[in-house]
Amino acid sequence: MKHLITKLLLLFATALQAQIDSTLIKRAQLDTTKQGLNMDAVYDRPFLSFGKVPVSVGGYVEANWQHLGTDGVSEGHQFQMRRMTLFVSSSIGKKLKFLSELEFEEGGKEIAIEFASLDVEFHPLLNLRGGIIMNPIGAFNQNHDGPKWEFTDRPIPATQMLPATWSNAGFGLFGKTYRKDWMFGYELYLSGGFDNSIIDNSENKTFLPAAKENGERFEESASGTPLTTAKIAIRHNTFGEIGLSYMGGIYNTFEDDGIELDKKRRVNVYAIDYNNTLPKLNTYLTGEWAWVQVDIPNTYTQQYGSKQHGGFLDIVQPVLDRKMLGWDNATLNLACRFEYVDWNVGTFNETGDEIGDEIWSIMPAISFRPSPQTVFRLNYRIQRQKDILNNEPARTGGFIFGISSYF
Fold this sequence. Notes:
The protein is mainly β. The chain has a single domain (47-64, 76-406), classed as Porin. 7% of the residues lie in helices and 54% in strands. The chain contains two helices and 21 strands. The chain has helices spanning 2-24, 156-160, and strands at residues 25-27, 48-50, 55-70, 73-74, 78-93, 96-105, 110-123, 126-134, 167-179, 182-191, 227-236, 240-250, 255-256, 259-260, 266-277, 284-294, 307-324, 327-342, 358-371, 374-386, 394-406. Strands 3-5-6-7-8-9-10-11-12-15-16-17-18-19-20-21 form a 16-stranded antiparallel β-barrel. A hairpin with a 2-residue loop joins β19 (358-371) and β20. The protein is globular, with a radius of gyration of 23 Å. It starts with a helix and ends with a strand.
């Protein structure tokens, strides 16, 4: 009897799996011909749906090898499991949608909820979003999925000047409309935000990404005031998309139990982003530039910059688009990324000499895509970084190979 039950269970499981494989599971593929805005990236992902079940799942993975050296000193061959991200979305009901994004970094050393929001649609131009939202400053913060990029590393300006994948608990409105070749979208959010760590951190400089280490920002705001993030974007089918965004608010704890500790100090960030695919050549361009302003206390030294700026530009050129190595829709690309950040814009008060603390990088790349959802990429980094005194820059170079894929 025991063996009979086991055989029946195996037979049932096999039949069920065949039924699921053939009729229930459907993968929502990325439509590479569809025109959209960066604000659509949160839902513009491949998901697995199970028949009429209102829940869909998906995700992506990134892993790489690198051999880099700085001024002749290298850590040798390094293998890294950068991240694995899981998506879960649900159409709860009419005009009600939920999406969450859970990220595991460095083999599970860090686990974070990057996005978990409920969207309520009243009108295409008026939607409510609440939960953990992705603040739309620039373009990369919203559209950061690894398989969409030809480079193993995220842009330096987006990760070391702006806090890439910067999300907070909050609420806001967003909407989008079309008219012939034009598309317009906007987003406006109030959320938790920065704290004193942006000027009190292990980097010993003004460093906005330090605020990501504070997990309590999802429960309480250091200043007790909201961070405002606003963005408008316009796309033309020929001329591409341009976005203008702002993020700002009080960052310091200026009072405690009604006792004034300091004046209110603001951080303001302005950004412009652009992307387009040039006709005929199909050259893809994407980039952004941002300006950061921080009110620094007079008691701080000049190594803490009150002004920062930087940005990046990616140029991707398909050179082969045909059946290759058994894949029907494979693409071979040549690409190059240009990056620059100045963490301390200005001159020394005593001498008038220019303050250093800046970095630039050029990264040529070759990438191969067996499908739009998977990329193999080989990069070479050429990087120069100056200290605050503008001494001879540290020289970094080396190869990086990585893979990234949705699943």
